[in-house]
Amino acid sequence: MKFKIRSLLLSFLCISPIISAQIKKIGVPFITNYNPKAYKAASENWDVLQDSKGMMFFANHFGIMQFDGVRWGIVTQPENRSMVRSMVIDKNDKIYVGAQGDFGFVIQLPNGQYQYTSLVKLLPKSARNFGDVLHTVIRNNEVIFFSYERIFIFKNNKIKVIDAKTTFDDFFQVGKEIYVSDNEKGLLKLKDDVLIPVENGQKFIGMQVRNIFQTKNGFLLFTQKNGLFTFNENQIKPFVTEVDPLLKQNQISAGIALSDGYFGIGTRQSGLIVIDSVGHLVQHINKQMGLENEYVTNFKIDKEKNLWVTMKGGISLIQISSPLSKIMDSSNSETKIYCSQIYQNKLYIGTDNGLFWLNWDAYKSGKRENVTFQHISGMSENVWNVGVFGNSLLAFEKNGIFEINGNSAKALAKIDGAWQGILIPNHPDLLLVGGYTGLYLLKKINGSWVFQHRIKGFEESSRIMESDKQGNIWIAHGYKGIYKLKFNTTFDSVSDIQFYNDKNGFPSSLFLNTFKVDNQILFGTTKGVYRQDVSSKKMIPDPVFKKYLGLENHIRLLKPDNQDNIWYVSGENTGKMNKQKNGSFKVEELPFRKLRYLYVPGFENIQTTQSGDVFFGTQEGLIHYSTIKNKKYQAKYKAVISEVKCIFPKDSLLFSSRYDVLPNKTGSINDKFSTVLSHSNNALHFSFASLCFDDADATKYEYWLEGFEPTWSDYSLQTEKEYTNLPENEYVFHVRAKNMYDVVSEEAVFRFEVLPPWYRTIWAYLLYLVLFGVLIYIIIKYQKRVAERDREQLILNQEKELLRNQAELNEQKLALEQENMAIVRENLQTTINLKNAKVASNTVNLIHLNEILLSIKELISQIDKKNDPNVNFSLLTKINKLIDHELQGDKHWNEFEEIFNQLHDNFMQRLKSTYPELTPRDMRLCAYLRMNFNTKEIAPLLGISVRGVEDTRYRIRKKLQLPSDTNITEFILNF
C-alpha cells in the first residue's frame, strides 16, 4: 500500500522549470571528464551555469572559470580574491556572483573581458561581515544572495539585509517561492522581504535539508544524512527508495530534477545517483563508472540536454541525452569487443581476452551493485564470434570451437582457429565452420554438436560466410575476392568453386564482404553494395542500396533486424535504414555518429534483439542503443572567437576573456570596426571554438578573412588561424563550426582595420603633396636659376667662343698670312735669288761683255785709225779669237756656278757627286733646267742651236738613267 501511495505521489513530480532531460536506464552514459590539469585552476568547483550563447561558467576556488568547448580560463575574480560559491545569470547575460565575504555582478566588455563589480559597498559597515554566499537566485526583478549569517536582497541598486537570529542552514528556490531553513526556527518562507514561519516548519530543525522539490501533492525533501522525505499537509514522512543505505552512508550534497519523474542526487562520497519516480535505482555513476570525482557539488542541464556535474575534484559532462551508452560494470574487465549475444537472459561478449557474460535482466533493471561480467573459464584468447545454433551456444575462438554451458566452455574441436559458423541450408543438423585455413563440419547428434571432419578442396581463410537459397556458400576473402562453393552430397569436399573479383565487375578485389539481406546475397565493396546479375553473372551495383547509400563509401557491414530494418556501417558512419510502410527506407545516421572510429577495423559488429536492444562491439567496450531516446540533433549553437592577438612585433592581446590581460576599453560591441591596428601590427592570431560540447573534439571549423581571402576555407579540426603581412584594409574574420552531426553553427565575426604604414596615411600623402609642391617650386626655382646661369654662361661661353674663334681665326689668318708671307717671302727670296743669280750672272756677263765690247771697241778703234787692211784683218782675227775664247771659257761659268750652288743648296756639287759621268756642258744645261729655262733660252747661253740643246738633253737622260716617261726638267727641279 505504501508503495502504491509513493507511486501515486511521485508520478506527477515536477519542478519549475522541469528539466526536459532523462538519463538512460541501460548502460552508463558517455562521460567526458575535465580534471584540474585540464582546466588549470583549483580542483574545487561549486556551481555551474550557461549563458544565452551557450558558454559554460563554473564557480571555482580561483574565480569564475569559463569553458568554450576548447579552452578553459579564469575570466574574473571577486575584488577580495576569494573563492566563488554560487552564480546566477539574467536574460541579459549579467552574472550575479556569490563569493566568500563578497558578492556582486559580472558583465562582459566589448574587448571580451569580464568585469566584476562588488555590491558590498552598498551595505552598511555593520552588515559587511559574513562568510560564504552559498546561493544566488533571481526572482522577478530582484537578486537574492544567501549566506549562513545574512540574506541580501538586491533591488533598484539598493540592498535589503535580513539577519539570522543564530544561523541559517540552507536556502531553497521552489518554483517562484523562496524558503530558508533556520537552525532555530525551522523552515521559513521569504515573502515581501520578510521571513515568515511555515506551519509545522519547526520539524525541519536539525534535518539538514539540502534540496526541496515541488510536487503536485507537496514537497520532496533531500536531506544530507537521512535520505529523502515528503512534506505534505504539514506532515513529514520518509520516502523509501532502493538506495536509502547508499544515500545515508554517503550524504546528499546536491539534487536536480530530470524529466519523467527522474531525480539526480549528488553525494559527497559516491558520485551521482539517479532514481525514478518510485525510488527505483536508474543509474549509479561513481568514479569507478567513469565520473571524475566522488564528491558532487552541483548540476546543470545545458542546451544540448546533457548534464554538467561540478565536484570538489574536477568537472564531468554526462551525455544523458544520447541514446547510446556503455555496458559497464564495476570490474570494467571487457576490452575490444568482437561479438555479442543474448542467450537465456545472459549477455555474452567476445573479446580479445576471452568470453564474458553478465545477468542481463538484472543489469537492465538497475540492480548493478553485484552484477559484473563473469569470465568463461577455458577461453582466454580472441573470441571472434558467438552464436545460438539450435539450443546450443557456440563460441568460435583462436584455439577452436567451444560450446558454452554456464560459466564454462567445452571444446568441440581443437583446430587452427575458427572464425564463425552457419547452418547449411535444408540441413539444420549440419553446421559449417569457417576457419583460418579452410572449412569444417559439425553435426548435431542427440542434441549435441559433434565435430565431423575438415572439408576437402578449399583451404582459404573463411572469416565471412553466407548461404543462399540454392545451398551455395559464399565466402569473402579480405584481399582476394569472393568464392562461391558447392559441396558434394556427403559434405566432405567441395565439388565446385567459382571465384569473383574485380574482373567480374567488382570495383576492387580488396575489402570485399558478403551479407544476406531478405534472403538475397549482397556484397559490400569499397564503392557501395553490389549483387550478382542473374543473366550475365556479373557483379553490379544494387539499385536499392545505391539509392540510399550511394556508391562512394566502403560498405563494411549490413545487418537486418527482426523489423526488416537494415543496420549498416558505411565508411566511418553507422546507420539504420528504417523500413517504411510503402516499402521504402528512411536513412538514420545522426544518433550513431559517436561510433565513428570506435570499431575494431575489419571486425565491425552489430547485434539486435527481439526487444529492440542494439549492441555495438567497439574498441572501447560494448555500446548499447535505445530506440526510445529522442535526442534533437539539429539544435542550434554558436561559434565563438576566444582570443585575438597581434603576434608581431610582440604578442599583444586585442580580444580575450582571460583575466587581467587587457586594459578596459569602451565602445559598443556592434561598432563597425571597433579595432584599429597600426600597420606594424598587421600579423594576427585567432583562436576560436564552438559552444557545442557533445564530442567537442570531433567538431570541425571553417574560417574566412573577408577582405583578404576570396572564400571560406575547408573544414578542419584546427581551432587557430594566423595571418601575417596583412595589407592595409578593413577586414572581417568569420568562423563557423560543424559538429559531429553535421550541424553548422551560427558564425562568429571579428571586425578590425589595419591602417596603412605612416608613409601611406592621408597625412603622409598631404605631406607628400606639400613636399611635392615645395619640391616642384624648388625645382622650378632651381631650373630658373640654372637656366639663367646657363644662359649667362652660354652667352659668356659664346662670347668666349667667339673671341676664341676670332683669336683662332686671327691666329689662323696670321699663321696663314705668315705662311703666305713666308711662302711669298720664300718665293720672293727664290725669285730674288734667281733674279739675283740672273742679275749676277747677267751682270757678270754684262761686265764681261762690256769688257769684250771695250776690247772690240779698242780693236775697232785701232782699225779705224790705221786703216790698214792687214792690220785690220789681224785685228779682226783677234776679235774673232776673242769671241771664241769667251764662248769656250770657264771663268765666268765658275763664278756663276759658285753663286748658283749657294742659291740651290750645292746643287751642282750634289749632282756631280751622284752622277760623275756628267760633263761641264751637261752640268750647265742641268743648271739652266734647274732655273726652269726652256730650250730656246738655253741654246744661246750654251752657244749651240736648239737642236744641240735637245741632243744634250737626250744624252743627259741616259746618264741620269731616267725612264722615258720621266720629265727631265721635273727631275732636276726636285733633285
Automatic annotation (TrEMBL):
Coiled-coil boundaries: 799-826
Membrane-spanning segments: 762-780
Domain HTH luxR-type: 915-972
Keywords: Coiled coil, Membrane, Phosphoprotein, Signal, Transmembrane, Transmembrane helix
UniProt entry tagged with the keyword Ligase: no
InterPro entries: Ig-like_fold, Quinoprotein_ADH-like_sf, Sig_transdc_resp-reg_C-effctor, Tscrpt_reg_LuxR_C, WD40/YVTN_repeat-like_dom_sf, WH-like_DNA-bd_sf, Y_Y_Y
SMART domains reported in the protein's UniProt record: HTH_LUXR
Keyword Iron: no
GO molecular function, one term: phosphorelay sensor kinase activity
Lineage: superkingdom: Bacteria
Name of protein: ABC transporter substrate-binding protein
